[in-house]
C-alpha cells in the first residue's frame, strides 16, 4: 500500500539505486526531459518537463506529498534558476509572475534537497559540522547556496518539512576517477594536499530514503573516511591495478592540473557525520572507502 506520492526531480544514478525501496512504499513520479523506458518499466510514472522551461513544469503542481530534489543547477551563474522555476511550479505559478497559487493546489509535506558540501568552502582541514556557516568559493558552490536559501525560505513560509543533504564526493564501482588515473593526471604532494570527503552511492541512496520519513534541517551526508585526496587516488589506483598518480607541489600544479580539478584541490575540510547517524539513524554499509571500493582483477570501460 503506497504511503504517499513521491515526486523525484533529477532521477539520476543515486535516485535509481533507491527506487526499489521507494516503489515498495510510495507512488513514484519522476520528472524527465524525454522518454525513459527503464524508469517506466520499473513502475515509475513519468512527467515530461524541463527545469529550464518553466511553462513545461505546471503539471507538477499538487501532485506530490513528498519531493526529492536531486537536479543539479545549470552550469553557469551564481543563482540556481532551475530550483526557482521548480518551486514556482509547485506553487502553481509559471515563471517569475507572482500570480496566485491555483486554489486548492496541494503542497508537499516534505522536501529532501541534495546539496553539496562545497557550500562550506575551504575550511583549512578543520572538522566541519552543520553549524558551520556557508562560505562558497566557486560559482558552482554559490549556485547551491542560492538553492539552499530559496528552498529553505519556500518551505519555511509554507510550513513544509525540509531536509538538506550536503553531499561530498560520491563514489561507486561505476563512479571512479579512472580517466584521470589513466591520463596520469598529478595530485598534490602530501604536505600541500587537502582533506576530501566521500560517500558510497548506495549509502547516499539509503540516507535519502530515511530522509523521506524523518529528520529536519541540514545534514552532512558523508562516510567515516578521513583522508587526503592523493591517498584516495592512490587507493583507487591500487585497487584497479593502475599506476599511482604522480605528485606535484601546489606551486607547480597550474598547467599540469585542470582549473576545475585545482578548484577541488583548494578546499580542505573533514565533515562530521554525527547527525545522519543520530538523527536519521543511518548505518553505513560502507563506513569508509576501504570497504566501498571494488577490488578489480581487471576493469573494462
Describe, in plain words, how this protein is organized in 3D:
- The chain is an alpha/beta fold.
- About 30% of the residues lie in helices and about 20% in strands.
- The protein is globular and about 55 Å long.
Task: Itemize the secondary structure elements and their pairings.
Elements: E1 5-9, H1 13-25, E2 27-32, H2 37-42, E3 45-48, E4 66-69, H3 81-90, E5 110-116, E6 127-128, H4 139-158, E7 161-167, E8 169-171, H5 178-183, E9 187-188, E10 195-196, E11 198-200, H6 201-211, E12 217-220, E13 227-228, H7 229-239, E14 247-248, H8 259-264, E15 270-271, H9 274-278, H10 289-292
Parallel strand pairs: 1-2, 1-4, 2-3, 4-5, 5-7, 6-15, 7-12, 8-11, 9-14
Antiparallel strand pairs: 10-13
Portion in strands: 15-25%
Distance between the amino and carboxyl termini: 40 Å
For this structure, what is the CATH homologous superfamily?
Answer: NAD(P)-binding Rossmann-like Domain
> Can you identify the CATH class?
Alpha Beta
What profile does the largest beta sheet have?
A: 7 strands, parallel
Mean pLDDT: 94
Strand count: 15
- The coarse overall form would be globular
In spatial order, strands of the major sheet run 3-2-1-4-5-7-12
Tell me the CATH topology.
Rossmann fold
Tally of separate helices: 10
Q: How many domains? A: 1
Order of helices and strands: EHEHEEHEEHEEHEEEHEEHEHEHH
Question: Under the CATH scheme, which architecture would be assigned?
Answer: 3-Layer(aba) Sandwich
Helicity, in percent? 25-40%
CA-atom Rg in angstroms: 20 Å
The structure class reads alpha/beta
Ranges where pLDDT stays below 50 over 5 or more residues in a row are 95-103
Amino acid at each position: 500500500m503506497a504511503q504517499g506520492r513521491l515526486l523525484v526531480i533529477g532521477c539520476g544514478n543515486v535516485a535509481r539505486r533507491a527506487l526499489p525501496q521507494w516503489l515498495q512504499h510510495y507512488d513514484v513520479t519522476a520528472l524527465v526531459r524525454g522518454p525513459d523506458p527503464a524508469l517506466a518499466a520499473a513502475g515509475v510514472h513519468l512527467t515530461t518537463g524541463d527545469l529550464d522551461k518553466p511553462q513545461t513544469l505546471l503539471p507538477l503542481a499538487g501532485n506530490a506529498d513528498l519531493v526529492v530534489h536531486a537536479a543539479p543547477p545549470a552550469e553557469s551563474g551564481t543563482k540556481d534558476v532551475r530550483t526557482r522555476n521548480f518551486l514556482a511550479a509547485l506553487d502553481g505559478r509559471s515563471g517569475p509572475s507572482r500570480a496566485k497559487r491555483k486554489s486548492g493546489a496541494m503542497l508537499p509535506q516534505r522536501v529532501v534537497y541534495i546539496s553539496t558540501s562545497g557550500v562550506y568552502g575551504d575550511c583549512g582541514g578543520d572538522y566541519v559540522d552543520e553549524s558551520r556557516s556557508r562560505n562558497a568559493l566557486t560559482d558552482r558552490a554559490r549556485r547551491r547556496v542560492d538553492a539552499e536559501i530559496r528552498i529553505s525560505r519556500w518551505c519555511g513560509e509554507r510550513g513544509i518539512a525540509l531536509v538538506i543533504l550536503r553531499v561530498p564526493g560520491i563514489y561507486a564501482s561505476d563512479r571512479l576517477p579512472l580517466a584521470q588515473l589513466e591520463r596520469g593526471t598529478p595530485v598534490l604532494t602530501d604536505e600541500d594536499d587537502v582533506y576530501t570527503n566521500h560517500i558510497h552511492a548506495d549509502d547516499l541512496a539509503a540516507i535519502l530514503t530515511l530522509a523521506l520519513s524523518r529528520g529536519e534541517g541540514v545534514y552532512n551526508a558523508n562516510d567515516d573516511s578521513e583522508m587526503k585526496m592523493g591517498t584516495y587516488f592512490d587507493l583507487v589506483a591500487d585497487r584497479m591495478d593502475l599506476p599511482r598518480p604522480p605528485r606535484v607541489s601546489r606551486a607547480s600544479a597550474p598547467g599540469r592540473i585542470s582549473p576545475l580539478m585545482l578548484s577541488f584541490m583548494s578546499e580542505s575540510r573533514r565533515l562530521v557525520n554525527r547527525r545522519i547517524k543520530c538523527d536519521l539513524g543511518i548505518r553505513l554499509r560502507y563506513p569508509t572507502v576501504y570497504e566501498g571500493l571494488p577490488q578489480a582483477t581487471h576493469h573494462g570501460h
